[in-house]
Each structure stands twice: as C-alpha cells, then as structure tokens.
Amino acid sequence: MYFLTGKALKQGKKFVGKIEDLKLPFLYWIGYLYGILILRGILEGFLESAHRFPKLIHLLVHWPFWYLNFLITIALILFFTTKEKIEKITRAVFLFSFLLLIVPLVDFLVSGGKGFVLGYCMSADEVSGILLTFGGLYGKSLITPGQSLAILLAILLTFFYVFIKNNSIKKAIVAVFLFYLAGTFYASFPLGLALLFGLEQSFNHEVATLTILFLLCLAVVQSIAWLYLYDRKIAKAFLQNLKLLRAGHYLSVTVLGALFAVYIFSTLSFDLKSLFAALLSIFFAFEFCLVYNNIYDKHIPKNIKKRQYEKISYGLLFFSLFFAALINTSAMVFLFLAIIVGLYYSIPPFRLKKLGFLNNLVIGLISMLACGIGFLSQLPNISKIPLGAGIAVFITFSLAANIKDLKDRERDGKEGVKTLPVLLGYKKGLKAVALLTSVSFIIAPALLGFPYLSIIGAFFGTLNYLLLNKVKREEVTFALYFIFAIIFGLALLYRVV
C-alpha cells in the first residue's frame, strides 16, 4: 500500500492530469468517441457468430447510444466520488473508450474464429447470473470472455482513478460498486421495458425499438445533468430560454398531422413510437434554432460567452437528427427543411424576422413542415400528403403567428422590425392581432370541410378576441389554441369532425 501512496501515486496523478488537460475541440471528442463506437459495431458484426455487416439503425444509433450512455454514467459516478471537474473526468473516460474494441477481438480469438452472440439479459435468471458472477468475471453467465476482460479493465481503471484522486480505498470501492450496478442496469433494462409494456421477454423488433427510444431519452437526461455539472450558468440560461409555449405549438401540429394521416387513411394503424420520435425530433430542432435566435437577439446573459452557449446547439441538433432517423427518410427531409428555414429566420445575413409582419409566413411554413413530419410518421410517403391540408396549416399559422409580435413590440420597434403592433401602435395593433388570431381558429376546419369543428372554432375565435383585448397577453391565445387542438385531435381520432 505504501507503493500506491508513494511514487506510483504521484506518477499516476501526473499521467491522469495530462489526459484530463488535453485541450482539444468539443467536436473532436464527439468525432473520436463516435468513430470508436462505430468501429466497435462493425467489428462486432463481422467477428460475432453472424459474421455480417450490422443493420445501420444498430450501427449508427443503437450501439453508439448504449455505450455513450454507459460512458456518461461512468463519468457521473467518478464525479460524485472524486468531486473533480466533470469535463476533465469526461476527457479521461472518452479517451479510454478505445478499450471497447477489445471485446469483439478477444471473443473472436477465444472462440477460434466463431465469435459470440452479444445480447441483453432477457430473464431474471440471466440478470441474477450477472450479479452472482460479478459481471461474468467468475463462473458462467451471459457475459462473453471479451466483455469480462473489458469489465475487469474498467473496474481496475475506476478503482485507481478514484484512489489517485482521493487517496481513499473506501471511495474507490464505492465507485466500483456503483459501476457494477450501472453495468447490470444497462445489461438488463430491455427486460424491464418488455415487462413494463407487456411484451414478450425476448429481444424482438418491438423491444429493440423501445430500447433505442429509451437510450436516446436517457442520453438527453444524462446530457442535461452533465451540462448542469459542467456550467450551471449555461444550463440555467438554456432552461430559462426554452420557450415551451412556442415549442408546444410545433408539437401540437405534429400530433395533428399524425392524427390526420390516420383519419384519411382508415386502414393505417396508429404508430405511437414513430410519433414519439417525431415529437422529440421536432422539439430538439426547435430548441436548436432557438439557441441561434437567442444569440443574435442577444438574449443570453452577459457573463456567458457566445461560443459556450452555442455548444449547446451541437447536442440539440445531434439528438434531433437521431430521433428523426427513427422515423423515416421522408420525415428527415422535412426536418432538414424546417431547420434550414428556422435558421434563416434568425441568423445573418438572412434574418427573415426583419421582414416585419411578413416574417409570420416563415412561422406558417415551419408549422406546415412540422405537421407534415407528423403525417409522415404514420405514412412515409410525401405524395400522400393532401395539398389542401398543407395550405390550410400554412394560412392558419401565418395569421396566428402575429400573436408573438405583441410581446416583442418594444424590441421590434428598436430594431426597425415593422410588425403590426409597431406599424399601428399598441392599441390598434392589439385589435389587429386579436382579429387575425381569432380568424385562424376557423380557417383550418373550414378549408378541410369539417363543419362541426368550424362552429367550435368560431366559438374559440370569438372568445379569443374578447379575452385577448382585455387581458392583452399571448398566453390567452395559446391556452385557447391548445384546448382547441385537443378537441380537433379527438375529433379526428374518433371521426366526429
């Protein structure tokens, strides 16, 4: 033990310090890690018993996000047991991710070229097998020889990292124990999903899809936790600028698009998983564009650097594209268009928001694309989208988008953006906005030929005009809009339009 606390400890700290202090760009680390994880997937496909190239959804999404989540979990464990800066810990964890490559290589060599089939624990016996054999290090379990070696190396690295930082065997053992529990969780959570959703206890297509969605959602949660530990100011600035009401609008039209597809094609069965992926993709795309809108509108605190805040956008775009990949190619095309238009709305030299009240046409276009993504989540065929429905959505939300100009009137006036409240003055502008937003409740159901919904829309429109003129807050219109959207959705679902 004297050896560990003497010269070797100093050398270990020096070595770890060099790794932690590597000053490399953020995108380099993401590229390095993702490259390692894709290479791992390719080797796993060719060297395991199947000996074939893996499916792209597994290669590009499933396996990378499994390992990404596990590595972030390890980084969080090391943070709470060492109190070292999270970015330093993450550099060390990501750098040693190359050790994952030993799993398929060792399995291939040990099996004499036959390889092993890697899998999740899909029964209570298999979970207990991992627990009772210490992750496969002792006795027989689902864990392959290559995985056992990787687990052993990870345990040793975890132990020595915490010991080097704290000079405490107790904390090092705690870190190893938490690592062990995390590993068991990641090996068996598909079993939990199967039990939760009442599915067969085997790794079939349905369980695989749920697994991918779960991994992506878990990555989002862990990334937010990581960001908070990295810089609370940036995390706080991001969370305070989410604009959930406006994000909720795009989520609403996405759901309505999906319900409309099922309504007009009665033979379709509702695909809830694809819709869920579409909603998350739309949400992250909106927040990605919003980051740049906040930057160029100077809505970020002065004590936060633009470059630091901008880094959030990488993760948002990353998640948006990966959730979109779970839908289909057609939906991804619509998503790309929506992101491009959304960026053009905010960033120079385009700054389409400078068009005054005409910038609301951009909101109408993005709303139409979001509705189209919802439609495509149920029926992946662009040619099947009714042109009339697209036009109805475009007109409706081009008019309704004027509501945002009430809140931004003073800033728009200073920047020379000629919105209706700026051009007409606050009182007349309020009446004009109230009229346009009220009319928007009627347009979509009227153009789509839904008489009952048109009557309900007229009621909501009248109520909106009266309340908005009295309360003078956009929250009134949003509240009525979300209630009407729920009624609209239920009418489509139960075919009582």
Explain the overall architecture.
By secondary structure, the chain is mostly helical. The chain has 2 domains: 2-230, no CATH class; 235-493, Farnesyl Diphosphate Synthase (Orthogonal Bundle). Helix content is 76%, strand content 0%. The chain contains 23 helices and no strands. The longest helix has 28 residues, at 169-196. The protein is globular and about 80 Å long. The N and C termini lie far apart (77 Å). The mean pLDDT is 90.
Summarize the structure.
The chain is mainly alpha-helical.
Taken in chain order, the helices and strands follow as: HHHHHHHHHHHHHHHHHHHHHHH
* Structural class designation: mainly alpha
**Any idea of the CATH class of the largest domain?**
Mainly Alpha
Domains, number = 2
| Radius of gyration (Å) | 27 Å
* Main sheet characteristics: none
- How much of the sequence is in beta strands? under 5%
Name the average pLDDT: 90
